[in-house]
Amino acid sequence: MSRPAHTPAAKAGPVTLAMVARRAGVSPQTVSNALNSPGLLRPETLERVSRAVEEMGYRPHRAAQTLRTRSSKLIGYGIRPTAPGLSAPVMDRFLHALSEAADEAGYRILLFASPPGRASLDGHEELLDLHSVDGFVLSGTDRGDPRQAWLAKRGVPFVGFGRMWSGRQIGDWADVDGASGTDAAVEHLVGLGHRRIAFLGWPRGSGVGDDRAAGWQRAMRRHTLPVRGRRAESVDDIAAAREAAGPLLDAGATAVVAASDALAMGCYQALRDRGARPGADVAVIGFDDSPTAALLSPGLSTVAQPLEAVGRECVRLLLARMARPDAEPGRVLLAPSLVVRDSAPPPPGG
């Protein structure tokens, strides 16, 4: 009498490839081919082996696969503490999109802790020494970042979420065109009748922040609107932004474009300090479309980043680099979109 499929044979240990081969009536090599090179098998053989794998709950041993294929199917991504403000939810959305895209391609994202502050090589060297990742996704690619040159010198595949702002372009990257986002914000405000449009940005020297400031400035000059005295800087913190926005409002700005939603929220507070109403007396537009933006009163108009598309492009570029190490670098610049809510009306009396 044959043994039933639910036999407790697993008590003797985990299901092995040899056990699956016996169950399917084939050789262990045939089972290996079914898992790694299914195209080599006849359809009926592949179906028989697949059924045995499913019934026995067999899972290939990842370490053994790594030795055979020299691929761990793991992609490293360093997590750094975020600065104060609302950037964390945005990076969470990117990480979720990245993980989904990697999963669809048969890979997993391996997270490791990266120290706060400027990007460093901490963690990257250790993972490579252990041969546990096939490549890296880098974020926070700012000026002075040592990771790209270090990885490129060692022939390690990587892709950046963000351009390499140092001037010398190294490696593959996918990024959001921040300048086009703030340009679109100014264009929208000009169309409503605003002429005194200020910019509340991050301190100069940040690649992403400078890019967003450049879009504001470009649009202002296109419409021959003055920019002198219309720009203020703040770290990405609501309380600091509240102080920085004050002089812009005192100078008579009827609209403020902010480099982040956190800065825009600081502008809301600065307006209320003066007895003014955001979205009525002064228009405000943020950047990032953070979860809080739609919950504010009034709802914050903001620039939304296509994070799902960025995640997919990062995985696509990295896999292409793994397949063709000597190929020309891939660079993808994606356009954001303006989300209009109640905080961006025409100017009073306009």
Automatic annotation (TrEMBL):
Occurrences of domain HTH lacI-type (ranges): 15-69
Alphabetical UniProt keywords: DNA-binding, Transcription, Transcription regulation
CDD domains linked: HTH_LacI (cd01392), PBP1_AglR_RafR-like (cd06292)
Organism of derivation: Streptomyces paludis
One of the record's GO molecular function terms: DNA-binding transcription factor activity
SUPFAM superfamilies in the record: lambda repressor-like DNA-binding domains, Periplasmic binding protein-like I
InterPro entries registered for this protein in UniProt: HTH_LacI (IPR000843), LacI/GalR-like_sensor (IPR046335), Lambda_DNA-bd_dom_sf (IPR010982), Peripla_BP_I (IPR028082)
Name assigned to this protein: LacI family transcriptional regulator
